[in-house]
Amino acid sequence: MTAREFLNRPFILNNKINDKKIKLGFYRELSCSPSSPGFEEHFSSNRNTKAPFVRYLEKIDDLEREIAEDYRMLEEMKTEVDNAIDVVEDPMEQMILRYRYLEFLSMPEISVRMHYSLRWTKKLHRRALDSFERGHP
Description:
The protein is mainly alpha-helical. It contains 5 helices and no strands. It has one domain.
């Protein structure tokens, strides 16, 4: 695993959480909307007695549990990455790594926050990754 892959793990998990939140919103909309009646004849030996929205409520409950577990894992990952960043000696390099991989800021946002040009910020980021890899072979 490269340094960038190790540092990007929280970002990837955060994106998965956001995708699950979008899915949760769809399930909530479906659970509140009325289902259409079926006018065709059904010949079924066992009749489904559950209301259609109950299935979505069960999915909502399961997805909320998954999201809560993912948030717990995200906090553990962030703590692990934060502790790994402490090995880098230069405080500016530590700051840029924390902005990028713990706060999920883009390079332009980091350059504004650090009051550097975008070009210098990218150069500092490359240097920080090299320092991180030297500290974590």
